[in-house]
Design brief:
By secondary structure, the chain is α/β, with parallel strands linked by helices. Strand 4 (130-135) and strand 5 form a beta hairpin. It has 13 helices and 16 strands. The protein has 3 domains: 10-164 and 374-461, 3-Layer(bba) Sandwich (FAD/NAD(P)-binding domain), CATH 3.50.50.60; 172-233 and 317-368, 3-Layer(bba) Sandwich (FAD/NAD(P)-binding domain), CATH 3.50.50.60; 255-314, no CATH class. It has a 5-stranded parallel β-sheet, with helices on one face. A 5-stranded parallel β-sheet has the order 8-15-9-10-11. It has helices at 19-34, 52-55, 80-87, 100-117, 206-215, 255-273, 277-282, 287-293, 296-314, 319-331, 382-389, 429-432, 438-455, and strands spanning 10-15, 39-44, 121-126, 130-135, 141-145, 150-153, 155-158, 180-181, 199-202, 222-226, 334-338, 341-346, 351-355, 360-363, 365-368, 421-423. The structure holds flavin-adenine dinucleotide. Flavin-adenine dinucleotide (FAD) binds next to helix 1, helix 2 and helix 5.
Length: 462
């Protein structure tokens, strides 16, 4: 390990350069510029900035799942993304679902602009993975990178997105088969899918939708399985009416009341607008409070009985994706099954997979669409294991994500939040539930940057 570089200005390290890390770095620069603070922000990611899992795709069929008018990177300027699109020759309606690659261009531009607004600040990038994080004296923390470099930081922001992939669904006989694609988002992962071969997608959420669109080809049948067989609901085109949030008997109702009130609220929306979606969208602003008020028993019941249904109505696909998926289903290119993968055999030139119910299929590849691992204790990612082993973090409520304070400062294994280590986005899902999409991430990034700058001990204290 190299000797950590101690910097004269405050040094902030953001680990992860997906949407959350990019927006955090931009906000740190903007806030430092506003306060005329000389700071150094180091953004660490082995992959190019602004992409992460969602925005690395260059496939034009992969569209945002949220209309352009809701995707501003800046809470205080809701139409920023829509205007940016127009300024860059992409004239679209505000309710359009635009290709996701446009959003990554936008994120990179937001970061570039933030650099210009903060002449007192320096942004550095490291094309590397963080492999360890060592808390030191006086609040300083050392981040160790895969390149061998060590960076001393006054504050570290963990913007890791997720904690790797879940492998528990893979039947033992094919656990090591190269025909099982465990991380479909890894660069080049889909190259392992043999041309023309049928494919099994395990999972039926938005990742499955992306992959079905990507892999659909004449002569190939794509099978998608999930325990409830439910696909994400489609968004309807156009700007949807805003509906008031439902009223509860208290700010923190129990799960039974929540389910009853939401059922009635959806019926009200159907009567008023001819559609249930405004009711679902109406609780977005209070979802974190509702989740925070549920007892542990209620949260577990929600997770085991209702979360999949909630995800299918809350995390909807664009109307364009829905139309393409409908076409694939009608032509027989995509077949959905309500089933689990119970057994499999590697035949060398293909896999034989057996679904619950007894259906056997011969496929060229099995692709994991079960979504990312969200439990640190199950994570096989070395950096996450190092964070746990050092006690820098501890799992959040129900074991999901990291435990944090209300401002996103991580709580360590002893229950202390003294270290200047922060996180945002899906790693706060256990505490907040609604914490994975841009509207929440942009708010958290802005609030976190203010807190980090306020809470950072001045360099002289080291
Ligand atoms: C297919 C898909 C479509 C989506 N569409 C939308 C949408 O339309 N609108 C919306 O609001 N949200 C959407 N989302 C939600 C999406 O998760 C968020 O918008 C956002 O992309 C999350 O960004 P993130 O930075 O938290 O995580 P990620 O995108 O996962 O980025 C994390 C980054 O951290 C890096 N990293 C991880 N570990 C390390 C390490 N040890 N060292 C260095 N770097 C590390 C990774 O390389 C990665 O670049 C979508 C999600 C998916 C999966």
């Amino acid at each position: 390990m190299n000797t950590p570089t101690l910097l004269s200005n405050s040094s902030y390290v953001v680990v992860g350069g997906g949407a959350a890390g990019t927006l955090t770095a931009a906000r740190l620069l903007l806030e430092a510029g506003r306060q005329h603070q000389p700071v150094r922000v180091t953004l660490v990611d082995p992959t190019p900035i602004g992409r992460g899992v969602a925005y690395s795709t260059s496939d034009p069929r992969h569209r945002l799942n949220v209309p352009a008018y809701k995707m501003s990177a800046l809470t205080e300027d809701g139409s920023h993304f829509h205007r940016w699109l127009a300024d860059h020759g992409r004239e679209v309606a505000e309710a359009d679902f635009v290709p996701r690659r446009w959003f990554r261009d936008y994120l990179c531009d937001v970061l570039e602009k933030a650099k210009c607004w903060a002449p007192s600040a320096v942004l550095e990038q490291r094309e590397a993975s963080a492999v360890d994080l060592v808390p030191g004296e006086f609040g300083a923390t050392t981040v160790e990178l895969s390149t061998g470099e060590s960076i001393a930081a006054d504050a570290v922001v963990l913007a890791l997105g997720h904690l790797g992939v879940d492998r528990r669904w893979v039947p033992a006989p094919i656990a090591t088969s190269s025909r099982v694609i465990r991380d479909p988002w890894a660069y080049g992962a889909l190259d392992a899918v043999p041309p023309n071969a049928d494919v099994l997608l395990v999972g039926s959420g938005l990742t499955m939708i992306d992959l079905a669109l990507r892999l659909a080809a004449p002569g190939r049948t794509i099978h998608a399985i999930s325990r409830n067989g439910r696909l994400p609901q489609p968004h309807l085109p156009g700007v949807r009416p805003g509906m008031e949030a439902p009223e509860f008997s208290s700010p923190t109702p129990c799960l039974d009341e929540l389910l009853t009130v939401m059922t009635n609220h959806a019926a009200k929306a159907r009567n008023r607008y001819g559609d249930w979606r405004p009711a679902i969208d109406s609780i977005r602003a209070i979802t974190q409070r509702l989740w925070g008020g549920l007892s542990e028993t209620d949260r577990i019941e929600f997770l085991t009985k209702h979360a999949r249904t909630w995800d299918s109505v809350r995390h909807r696909m664009s109307p364009e994706s829905a139309a393409s998926i409908d076409r694939c289903r009608q032509s027989g290119q995509l077949v959905t099954h309500t089933a689990e993968l119970v057994d499999a055999l590697d035949l060398g030139d293909s896999l034989e997979v057996v679904l619950s119910g007894g259906t056997a299929l011969r496929v060229g590849a099995v692709v994991n669409c079960t979504g990312p691992c969200d439990r640190p204790e199950r994570s096989e990612v070395p950096f996450v294991r190092a964070l746990l082993d050092r006690g820098v973090v501890r799992p959040g409520p129900l074991g999901i994500g990291f435990a944090t304070t209300s401002s996103g400062r991580v709580i360590d294994a002893t229950g202390s939040s003294d270290a200047s280590v922060w996180t945002l986005g899906s790693l706060r899902k256990g505490s907040l539930w609604e914490s994975t999409a841009i509207p929440e991430i942009r708010d958290q990034a802005a609030a976190l940057a203010r807190c980090v700058l306020t809470n950072t001990p001045v360099p002289a204290q080291r």
